């Protein structure tokens, strides 16, 4: 009987100690849960869309958006600058620079020469972020008429595909490309049906800046 009494007393004491430890916060606290942010459905990616590759001889034009960056010099760098109607851009410290009519590499050299007055051996990078000056125009019976960027090779058939194809009342045999060269308008007739059948593929004209494609 004495043994049982001692065992019962020990169990009661052990239970009391556990309860006291729990009430005093002696128990190990749970680790905090860290949740990573999750993009909401339909949210836009923070990364910019890729820019189409431009030809090596690309000439900067009015309305183009440029990025001018200096190595380890944020004060002189500008993330986005638009070429004004006068063909110039405004840069910190350097101020006015001619941009239209130059290739990105030519502009880079000019900016570096101008910046050399204010810092030693400036390393400059020029990037065309948006090519808004090189455009062709599509009018008439098509899915979506209007200006289209010309950032690379683009044929009449490719342009029509971008526009959603011909309209219901279009005359596919009488499409015309109007091109102005040295102040003189030239016209190229395009028969959509012939090209689609693989005939006279030379009609699938490669477009140039300023071309107007008319779909009657």
Briefly, what is this?
The chain is of the alpha+beta class and 216 residues long. Helix content is 21%, strand content 25%. The radius of gyration is 35 Å and the shape is elongated.
Task: Please outline the helices and strands.
Elements (H helix, E strand, L loop, with lengths): L1 H22 L41 E6 L7 E5 L5 E4 L3 E4 L5 H12 L8 E7 L4 E6 L5 E4 L6 H7 L12 E7 L2 E7 L1 H5 L15 E4 L1
Parallel strand pairs: 6-10
Antiparallel strand pairs: 1-2, 1-5, 3-4, 6-7, 8-9, 8-10
Descriptive account of the structure:
The strands form three sheets. Strands 7-6-10-8-9 form a five-stranded mixed sheet, with helices on one face. A three-stranded antiparallel sheet has the order 2-1-5, with helices on one face. Strands 3-4 form a two-stranded antiparallel sheet. 21% of the residues lie in helices and 25% in strands. The chain is an alpha+beta fold and 216 residues long. The N and C termini lie far apart (113 Å). Among the domains are: 66 residues, wza like fold (2-Layer Sandwich); 81 residues, Outer membrane lipoprotein wza domain like (Outer membrane lipoprotein wza fold like, Roll), CATH 3.10.560.10. The N terminus is likely disordered.
